[in-house]
Design goal:
253 residues; alpha/beta; TIM Barrel; 11 helices; 16% strand; globular; binds 1,3-dihydroxyacetonephosphate
Length: 253
């Protein structure tokens, strides 16, 4: 059985103490229910400034991996405010989220930007979680597959393979709204993404496809049991260790 990847995107939330408390609660919860590790891999993506505190709290405990929420497309140099993939890898991160719809919306990121960032991340041996997903008006028009196909072909670099890349399908209208996509829509889109990946990658069947968008304990069982759903990218519910771990419990058969 393939383990599900249960990934928390903490976004720009919480104080340093909140992040320390949250990671401690997540680790304790996993320690208290070790069977979770047979079914799930865990990842948390705190704000950059809290990464080191998370690393410190983990003390080399590898039951939870940690990652960043973005990286620069440049290697180094005059990029005020940016953080390079190499710095992220150097701080112990294994993963980086790229092309989240919030970055596309608020920072004007395009598929081309995401592709250049992913190339840089792969050079630093980071696993990229590349986010795709249609907006509400695009789903209303029925063009969600075209939108996602374009994002995949534009954002995935030639360096992508099943070991260094994860796709997160996050329909924009489901993020932070409390309204997740239906299991039927998720099945259809994840199947579509799998077929698209087959055209591009040799080992496409092993590449994880996560669902993200209002995943919570109440809907996690159905979503995680859906064909081609290899885990979840969880926003709001990942800010509570209890909710985050309940979602992981939902992955237990
Ligand atoms: P929510 O779980 O809060 O909807 O956020 C999903 C998300 O954007 C994860 O990257």
């Amino acid at each position: 059985m393939n383990k599900k990847l249960i990934a928390g995107n903490w976004k720009m939330n919480g104080s340093l103490d909140d992040s320390k408390g949250l990671i401690a609660d997540v680790v304790n919860g996993i320690f208290g229910s070790q069977v979770l590790l047979e079914y799930c891999d865990f990842l948390v993506c705190p704000p950059y400034l809290h990464l080191y505190a998370v690393r410190h709290a983990l003390h080399g405990n590898d039951s939870v991996a940690y990652g960043a929420q973005d990286c620069s497309a440049a290697a180094n140099g005059a990029r005020t405010g940016d953080t390079s993939a190499e710095m992220i890898a150097d701080s112990g991160c294994s993963h980086v989220i790229l092309g989240h719809s919030e970055r596309r919306q608020h920072h004007g990121e395009t598929d081309e930007t995401v592709r250049r960032k992913a190339e840089m991340a792969h050079k630093s041996n980071l696993i990229t979680i590349i986010c795709v997903g249609e907006k509400e008006e695009e789903r209303d028009l029925g063009v969600q597959e075209e939108v996602v196909a374009k994002q995949i072909s534009g954002a995935l670099p030639d360096s992508a393979n099943a070991q260094n890349t994860v796709i997160a399908y996050e329909p924009v209208w489901a993020i932070g709204t409390g309204k997740s996509a239906s299991a039927e829509d998720v099945k259809s889109m994840h199947g579509f993404i799998r077929r698209k990946l087959q055209e591009k990658l040799e080992d496409s069947n092993k590449l994880r496809i996560l669902y993200g968008g209002s995943m919570k304990p109440e809907n996690a069982k159905e979503l995680l049991a859906t064909e081609n759903v290899d885990g979840g990218l969880i926003g709001g519910a990942s800010l509570s260790a209890d909710q985050f771990l309940k979602i992981a419990q939902a992955a237990l058969a």
